[in-house]
Structure formats: structure tokens, C-alpha cells
């Protein structure tokens, strides 16, 4: 019977948890994806590239929402079980509160494993790859230049027009007008061409065209124009790319060993060693937060007596405590980034909340605590002797 009950409670919690995770992840994923949409449009990237970059940011979004969605799923499930009197029947059958929490703890354990994997590998790996891809897109001057049937201005003073592109990748009808030097504008025109990527950057190779160049300092209105015809001419596009790759990874892009022990030649890591160490502890303590949120939800609703008016007050109180604890946790992380002595508080907060919630689930109340202190502790013995 206990196995059947465990399976039932597990799936009653797991299904809302998956749905809540999907909804919240979709919302956060959408907000992050919209930040990249403008860049992708201006750089002429495809819809497939947009979704690829969005998926790279997905581990970070999932890592953020998992504790929250677990808390929401538990609040929903426990409130439903209480409202439908299922918990009353379960407890009447002799099942203890801890037996009810067993399937929930199984789900919490799985969530903690997922959070650890996300923090240890998937999230920093995704952020690194995302940064690399965004660098490549910003530096892909060739893609932003060659747009079929459109005038493009990749940099100030440069205008490029391409009449058409063939399925094989070649280009027809090329016009490049360079007036970065106002007194000496240059115009390149060619019947056809192709984009070539080299180790030194992209090149535009043009065939059967001409170059119109002003030969005097007096400007195009007063100076003669020289025309040079060519069969083949290579135009360097890399000169217009001013994006430089940064090899120093930020805290979110680093794996745990790089946070706790940056290399001696890592200038960024050595400069912000305390901040990176605080980020590493934040990654580790994040594994405890699903347990903390679950214990808060259980402590709010599992010991609740039957109430026809519902449990809105308890749900609101539990939500407030969960939010407050997480906000304090963020504050402690910021404090630890400047004061390493606060690192212990990062772990003490969620563990302390879990301990208090566990005591409430076990039925410990203020009155029970007072009686236990008076009966079982040396302080209580002294009080009894002083006041018989």
C-alpha cells in the first residue's frame, strides 16, 4: 500500500512541477531571446540561428526557475490534496507525515541533481558557446553586407548593393561605394563575384568590373575620375570589423574549478578572485534551495488542520517566507563578494530554514518546545528547582 501511495503522490507532484517549469522557462527564455533578436535581424541571420542561440541560453533559464516551479507545484498539490480530503484519509489510515513527504523528497532529490549538473557544466558551457556565437555574428561583416536586392550600410560611409545571389552562392550585380574619405570616394562595380572566407577574414572577390576613383583632393565635383577595369579584384571586408574576441570569461561562463582556483595567468580571475569564489559557493548552495523551497511548502500546508475557509493565509505566508529567504540569499552572495567571512552565512540560511521547516512538519510548536526545554534540558532543571 505504501508503494502505491508513494507512486500516487509522486506523480501528483511531478506533473504540476513539469508544467510549471515549462511555463516559467518559456517566459524567461522568451525575454532572453528577444534581447538577441535585434542583433540577429541587423546581422541578417536566419531563424534557425535564432533558435540555436536561444537554446544555448536555456540552461540558465531552467536553473533559475526549477526551485520556484517546485515550490508552486507543491503548494498546488498539497492544497488540492487537503481540499479533496485525501490527506485526511491518508493520515486516518495510519500514514505518518514523513511517509507522505517521501515521494516529494524523491522529486526534490532529482531536482537537486539537475540543478547541480546545470550549475557545474551545462550553464557555463552554454554561456561560453553563446558568447562565441555572438562574437562570430557581430564579426560576420560578410553576411550583413550581402543582402539580395537591398542597399546596406554596414559602417558609416560604405554602401553595398547586390542584385541577386545564385543557389551556388555566387553573386550577381555588385556595387560597393566607399566614401569614408569624403574627398576621395571610390566605387567598385562588377558583373559577378563570390564571398571567400580566409584565415585573415572575409574577402569579396569580384569579376569583370571597374573601379571609379577620384584622383584629386578637390572632391568629386571638381576632380577628374579615373576608371580602372579588371577581370578579377579582391576586396578586403575584414577591415570593417571592429569586434575583438575577449578571452577572459566572466563568472557565469566559468566552470567550478575556474571559480575556486583561477589560473595564475588569468588576469580577470586573479583580479576578481573573491567575487569568483562567491559565485562558486552560490552555484553549490543553489543545490540546497530546491530542498528549502520544498520544506517551506510542506511546513505551511502539511501540518495544517482542516479549515473550511481554505488555506490562503498559510499559502501567502509560505510564499512570503520563500521569497524573503531567497532575497536574503542574493544579498548574502553580494556580501560574500566583498567579505569572504559571509560565505558561511550563504549555507547557513537555507539549511537553517530547512531545519525549522522540518521541526514544524514533525509537529514541534512553541508550547511543545517550552515543555521539552523545561523537562529535558539543564536550564529547565534549574528553573524547576528555583521555582518548584
Helices, by number, come to 14
Strand order of the largest sheet: 1-2-3-4-5-6
Distance between the termini: 50 Å
Q: How would a crystallographer describe the biggest sheet?
A: 6 strands, antiparallel
Structural class: alpha+beta
Output the radius of gyration. Answer: 32 Å
The proportion of residues forming helix, as a percent range, comes to: 55-70%
Shape: elongated
Low-confidence stretches: none
Mean pLDDT: 81
Total tally of structural domains: 2
Based on DSSP secondary structure assignment, what is the total number of beta strands?
Answer: 6
Order of helices and strands: HHHHHHEEEEEEHHHHHHHH
Q: Into which percentage range does the β-strand content fall? A: 5-15%
Brief sketch in words of this structure:
The protein has 14 helices and 6 strands. The protein has 388 residues and is an alpha+beta fold.
Helix-strand blueprint:
Elements: H1 2-42, H2 47-56, H3 58-83, H4 86-92, H5 97-139, H6 141-145, E1 150-152, E2 158-165, E3 171-178, E4 186-198, E5 201-214, E6 225-236, H7 256-260, H8 267-271, H9 273-285, H10 289-301, H11 312-336, H12 343-361, H13 366-376, H14 378-386
Antiparallel strand pairs: 1-2, 2-3, 3-4, 4-5, 5-6
Please tell me about this protein's structure.
- The chain folds into two domains: about 270 residues, no CATH class; about 100 residues, no CATH class.
- With about 400 residues, the chain is α+β, with helices and mostly antiparallel strands.
- Helix content is about 60%, strand content about 15%.
- β1 and β2 form a beta hairpin.
- It has a six-stranded antiparallel β-sheet with strand order 1-2-3-4-5-6.
- The chain is built from 14 helices and six strands.
- α10 runs antiparallel to α11.
Amino acid at each position: 500500500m505504501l508503494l502505491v501511495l508513494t507512486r500516487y503522490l509522486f506523480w501528483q507532484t511531478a506533473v504540476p512541477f513539469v508544467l510549471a517549469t515549462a511555463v516559467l522557462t518559456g517566459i524567461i527564455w522568451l525575454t532572453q531571446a528577444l534581447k538577441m533578436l535585434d542583433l540577429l535581424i541587423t546581422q541578417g541571420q536566419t531563424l534557425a540561428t535564432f533558435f540555436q542561440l536561444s537554446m544555448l541560453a536555456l540552461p540558465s533559464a531552467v536553473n533559475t526557475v526549477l526551485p520556484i516551479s517546485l515550490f508552486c507545484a507543491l503548494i498546488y498539490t498539497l492544497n488540492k490534496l487537503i481540499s479533496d480530503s485525501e490527506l485526511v484519509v491518508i493520515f486516518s489510515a495510519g500514514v505518518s507525515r514523513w511517509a507522505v513527504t517521501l515521494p516529494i523528497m524523491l522529486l526534490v532529490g532529482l531536482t537537486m541533481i539537475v540543478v547541480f549538473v546545470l550549475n557545474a557544466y551545462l550553464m557555463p558551457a552554454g554561456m561560453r558557446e553563446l558568447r562565441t556565437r555572438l562574437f562570430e555574428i557581430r564579426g560576420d561583416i560578410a553576411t550583413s553586407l550581402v543582402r539580395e536586392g537591398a542597399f546596406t550600410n554596414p559602417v558609416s560611409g560604405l554602401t553595398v548593393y547586390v542584385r541577386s545571389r545564385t543557389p551556388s552562392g555566387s553573386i550577381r550585380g555588385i556595387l560597393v561605394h566607399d566614401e569614408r574619405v569624403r574627398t576621395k570616394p571610390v566605387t567598385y562595380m562588377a558583373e559577378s563575384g563570390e564571398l571567400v572566407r580566409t584565415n585573415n577574414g572575409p574577402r569579396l572577390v569580384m569579376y569583370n568590373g571597374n573601379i571609379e576613383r577620384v584622383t584629386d583632393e578637390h572632391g568629386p565635383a571638381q576632380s577628374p575620375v579615373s576608371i580602372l577595369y579588371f577581370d578579377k579584384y579582391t576586396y578586403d571586408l575584414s577591415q570593417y570589423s571592429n569586434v575583438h574576441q575577449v578571452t577572459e570569461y566572466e563568472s557565469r561562463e566559468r566552470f567550478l574549478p575556474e571559480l575556486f582556483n583561477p589560473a595564475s595567468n588569468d588576469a580577470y580571475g586573479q583580479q576578481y578572485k573573491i567575487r569568483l569564489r562567491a559565485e562558486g559557493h552560490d552555484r553549490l548552495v543553489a543545490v540546497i534551495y530546491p530542498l528549502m523551497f520544498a520544506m517551506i511548502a510542506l511546513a505551511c500546508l502539511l501540518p495544517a488542520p482542516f479549515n473550511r475557509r481554505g488555506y490562503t493565509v498559510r499559502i501567502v505566508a509560505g510564499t512570503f517566507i520563500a521569497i524573503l529567504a531567497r532575497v536574503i540569499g542574493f544579498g548574502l552572495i553580494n556580501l560574500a563578494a566583498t567579505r569572504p567571512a559571509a560565505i558561511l552565512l550563504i549555507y547557513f540560511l537555507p539549511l537553517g530554514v530547512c531545519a525549522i521547516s522540518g521541526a514544524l512538519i514533525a509537529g514541534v510548536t512553541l508550547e511543545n518546545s517550552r515543555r521539552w526545554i523545561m523537562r529535558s534540558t539543564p536550564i529547565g532543571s534549574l528553573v524547576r528547582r528555583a521555582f518548584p
